[in-house]
Write a structure and sequence with these properties.
Length: 153
């Protein structure tokens, strides 16, 4: 996981990289105790269809067995800082199912990380479909094609 940053301090970047590695592993394996410890108390997520999940609902996806990941990773990671807050954008790459239905294989994610007693915690994640990727809705007005195409804007 390479992190590019507009902030001094390789140690801070290593801490963020470490946090992201632990979080992605916890999500992939459904380790709700670990996930819960990595999220702020007021954590919430905005999904690619606009739904909002507060922390209890985020954790329930795993606890109820509704969400099962085969893969869960972050690519194209880029980190920027606003004072003490880290804003991470990444391509969130997954393979899995939710209630037996396939989930999108890639979304663009923005994660807001806040410092907490020397560690990082995830306060917010917002996900958007990447046009043309598997599982994403089709681009309005785009010609129908059997081959997915990533659109660069």
């Amino acid at each position: 996981m390479d992190t590019h940053a507009s902030h001094d301090g390789p140690q801070i970047i290593r801490g963020i990289d470490s946090f992201l590695a632990v979080w992605t592993e916890a999500e992939r394996t459904g380790n709700t105790d670990r996930i819960e410890a990595l999220l702020t108390d007021d954590f919430y997520a905005v999904g690619p269809l606009g739904f909002v999940l507060p922390k209890p609902a985020w954790l329930a996806r795993h606890r109820l067995g509704d969400l099962i990941y085969e893969t869960f990773d972050l690519e194209e990671v880029d980190t920027h800082f606003l004072e003490q807050v880290a804003v991470v954008t990444a391509r969130h790459v997954t393979r899995g199912t939710y209630q037996g239905h396939p989930i999108p294989e890639a979304v663009r994610a923005t994660l807001v990380l806040v410092p907490d007693k020397g560690d990082w915690r995830l306060a917010v994640i917002h996900m958007s479909f990447i046009a043309g990727t598997a599982g994403a809705p089709s681009i309005p007005g785009a010609p129908k094609s059997s081959e997915p195409t990533e659109v660069v804007v």
